[in-house]
Amino acid sequence: MNLRKLASYGPALILIIALLALWQLYVQVGQISPLFLPSPTAIVAALAQNWPIIYDNTLQTLLETVLGILLATLFGLAMAILLDISSWMRRAIYPLLVISQTIPMIALAPLLLIWIGPDIRSKLIVVIIYCFFPIAVACADGLASVEPELINLLRSMRATRWQILWMVRLPAALPSFFSGLRIAATYSVVGAIFGEYVGAEKGLGIYMQRATNSFAISQVFAAIVVTAALSLLLFGLVSLIERITLPWYHGATYRRA
Amino acid sequence: MDTDTPKLLAQGITKTFHTGRQALETLASIDLTVEAGEFVTVIGPSGCGKSTLFNIIAGIETPDAGSIAIDGVIESDRAGKAGYMPQKPLLLPWKTVEENVILGLDVRHVPRKQAQAQARELLKRFGLLDFAQHYPATLSGGMSQRVALLRTVLFNRSFLLLDEPFGALDALTRLSCQMWLLDVWQEFHASVLFITHDVREAILLSNRIYVLSARPARVLRVVEARLPYPRQPQQLASPEAAQLESELMSLLLKEQQL
């Protein structure tokens, strides 16, 4: 990362520091019990103090998140290709996908727990339901955006349907796919934590729930900080993979040997 | 192959499009021949169905009636029998120039090494080797069309179908691309079917010119362009070319609807 890029984060950094300072001041000057609202320094202290436990739980959440998003990508891609097969398929499947997004997770997550149990599988399902939709929709739009003249060119070369999909339409849909994946990456952490919150053996979600129940508010905040960091990390990782995969999309003029 | 056999022999091609209850008669019985090694141009008023005829010959659309023989063999499934180049270059932005040029060979499952070697040779012969590893986004309009033409040639160098390939270029770039196309044509002794609405372009490039009517398209006239080869842009100023131009112009003007 170069200096100019780093400098572009300046305004956001200044705002965050200002808000944290204001928060710190509010807690210290005002008569607020640290039990209700811990100061930023207290949160950092709680994070440091409980790091081994939080770290252990974070690994579990990270595992669910990454595995979930991989499965959601496969499922989302499969749905996008299915939507793309014919307009009949599109009309049949699309409404179902939209309905899947209207399911209140707060109702479904406990049911999953009952049906499947408290292990990783119930969390993966929550993550997949959260994440496949932006991937499927973005990817289907990308597949549909290919110019008809280009399809004709390939047909004039006697390309099969699958060759057209593989050689032209899927690569053309990649920028849209990554847009969907970036949205999915931010959803995925929230999804995993929600899945854990209703019942799990390990993970940031269940850690937060236990901390809340024992009024350890500073530990709840510490877990929130880790959650945010995890989301940012995943978002950054997806952006990095996109830059490596699509150099042409990011202004590269030629292929490096 | 017998050199007397025409590369393309199209007879009685008709096509009517139906949208809902409306029928749009686009082609009214077209006969068309391209001899082996000949450069034939089709001109006609805009919207007359030139591109439809083109897509039918390329095997992308099917005619309602008529027969099309390529190399003397009547083909009902013609896809892959000609190199097809539409108006837009349609280069794939994620592929380099070289990879774009071998697209047709990829479709045919030609081994990568072999395809690359052929592409290099072609790019070198036609002055584009320096751009082999570039992405198309960095190329100018004229350059993109040259790459698209080489992609077409590499797919099928004996029969080229070119649909207004230089229509979107500025006058100077177009002229240099036209000269370049003649170079490619002579190098490969290709048979070319070229579509344009530019009369001067037709005269400068072709052996023979088919003039189509407004829709539904019929062949109004077939004229020979007898300018000597190698063609030069200056030849357009010769009395022979000027007379042909005004003749074709008046034919087309009568057909052009407002």
Give an overview in words.
The complex is a heterodimer of chains A (257) and B (258). Chain A is 82% helix and 0% strand. Chain A is an all-alpha fold. Chain A has one domain: MetI-like fold (Orthogonal Bundle), CATH 1.10.3720.10. The relative contact order of chain A is 0.13. Chain B is α/β, with parallel strands linked by helices and 258 residues long. Chain B has a domain at 8-88 and 157-255: Rossmann fold (3-Layer(aba) Sandwich). In chain B, helix 5 (141-155) runs parallel beside helix 6 (171-188). Chain B is globular. The mean pLDDT of chain B is 89. The A-B interface holds A 147, 149-150, 152-159, 163, 167-168, 171-172, 174, 246-249, 251-255, 257 and B 55, 58-60, 79-80, 82, 84, 86, 88, 90, 92-94, 96, 103-104, 106-108, 133-135, 137-138, 155, 161.
Write the layout of secondary structure elements.
The complex is a heterodimer of chains A (257) and B (258).
Chain A: H1 3-8, H2 10-29, H3 40-49, H4 51-85, H5 87-102, H6 105-116, H7 120-144, H8 148-156, H9 161-198, H10 204-213, H11 217-245
Chain B: E1 8-19, E2 22-34, E3 39-43, H1 50-58, E4 65-70, E5 73-74, E6 83-85, H2 97-101, H3 103-107, H4 112-125, H5 141-155, E7 159-163, H6 171-188, E8 191-196, H7 199-205, E9 208-212, E10 219-224, H8 239-255
